[in-house]
Specification:
With about 375 residues, the protein is an all-alpha fold. About 65% of the residues lie in helices and about 0% in strands. The chain is built from 15 helices and two strands. The chain is globular.
């Protein structure tokens, strides 16, 4: 795929790093801290439960702020691919780029397995698919597509993945669990859909939700579409269009995807746990709006005040995610604070988040970037 000299020499987008850091902060302790602070500060407020509800996942259908965190990160991974891959191809060739994508996917799959417990409970308890595995597989697939396909073909591929996934779940019958014998097609309820059914049949090891997994086999297809939408966004950001036009177009595109996603919702509900096609569009819509806003503020207006913590975290997201998930910051916080009864029960969350930020700052100051 030929690239213009402009795309090969495009400056680093601080907005991309800042938004990635903003995104990661929520799952690295900020949501927990804000929940505790708001609950403690406004115990009788009727608004606080509605606000803190946004820091939890929808049980099945629906969309909350916390449901955006993962797809936003995958979307931004696609943006990064559009910037980094042309440089690698120009430097080392297309074959080197493919090997790099596959090696990165393999490393992320291995890290994801370790993150979920690895072999400590035996082979039959390995969680083969999870968050990091999905990032590795989906971003590798999107990157490989981009090496041979142009913008129009990538757009058609994304549409084919989303529409094809919907048609599979809408028309392929699956056995109905429970008493009696029957089949069902077009049922998107938990345990009744094709995505969950294939996980129960073919996904080995431990599944996050009993016999199926939110990062399972078939739902990897629309996850690739999420990465592709990010990659297409990255191609737009590295084009020769005027910066203000880039930001405006991103926000408009985001609003259109939101409208399409919610228009699809009555026919294919917005469900994160099966990564429904409508969920892809809603999440990508918010992702595009956020990126367009960050891009305009940071890279067009050059407003950098207060961004430092997000830039620290955005420089080492996977390393900080692993450290947090393995309990490093929480364990250290518990050792430092011992017991914290009310009204100081928010201190452990504050200490955990502060330790994460201090680690991110130290890594950034030392120019240590643990990237995969």
């Amino acid at each position: 795929m030929p690239e213009s000299p402009h795309s090969l020499s495009a400056p680093r987008l601080l907005s991309l790093d800042a938004l990635r850091g903003f995104d990661m902060c929520w799952i690295l302790g900020l949501s927990s801290l804000l929940t505790k602070l708001l609950t403690r500060a406004f115990p009788t407020s009727s608004l606080v439960p509605d606000i803190t509800l946004q820091f939890t996942h929808a049980a099945w259908a629906g969309f909350r702020f916390y449901d955006l965190i993962f797809p936003l990160f995958l979307f931004l991974a696609g943006v990064s691919l559009a910037i980094a891959l042309p440089r690698r191809v120009a430097r080392s060739g297309r074959g080197s780029a493919v090997r790099h994508l596959l090696a990165r996917a393999a490393i992320l799959i291995l890290l994801g397995i370790i993150y979920s417990g690895g072999l400590k409970n035996g082979w039959d308890q390995i969680r083969w698919l999870g968050v990091l595995q999905r990032i590795g597989i989906a971003s590798a697939a999107a990157g490989i597509f981009s090496l041979w396909l142009g913008t129009r073909a990538l757009t058609l591929t994304t549409a084919a993945l989303l529409i094809g996934y919907f048609l599979l779940l809408r028309f392929v019958p699956v056995p109905v669990p429970g008493p009696g014998i029957g089949i069902s097609a077009g049922n998107f309820d938990e345990g009744m859909n094709l995505t969950n059914h294939l996980d129960s049949l073919w996904l080995p090891g431990r599944k996050y939700d009993g016999d199926h997994d939110p990062e399972g086999i078939l739902s990897t297809l629309p996850a690739i579409a999420t990465a592709l939408l990010g990659l297409l966004t990255g191609k737009w950001l590295t084009s020769t269009a005027a910066p203000s036009r880039k930001a405006g177009a991103l926000i408009i595109a985001g609003l259109l995807m939101l409208a399409l996603g919610w228009a699809w919702h009555p026919f294919f509900p917005v469900i994160k746990k099966i990564w429904s096609s409508s969920f892809v569009l809603v999440a990508a819509g918010w992702s595009a709006i956020l990126l367009g806003s960050f891009y305009f503020i940071v890279d067009v207006l050059h407003w950098r005040r207060g961004l430092a913590p997000f830039l620290w975290v955005g420089a080492n997201p996977i390393a900080l995610y692993l450290a947090s998930g393995l309990g490093f910051f929480r364990s250290l916080s518990e050792r430092l604070l011992f017991t914290t009864p009310p009204p100081y029960d928010w201190l452990p969350a504050a200490m955990t988040f502060a330790l994460m930020l201090a680690t991110a700052q130290w890594l950034h100051k030392k120019q240590i970037f643990l990237k995969v």
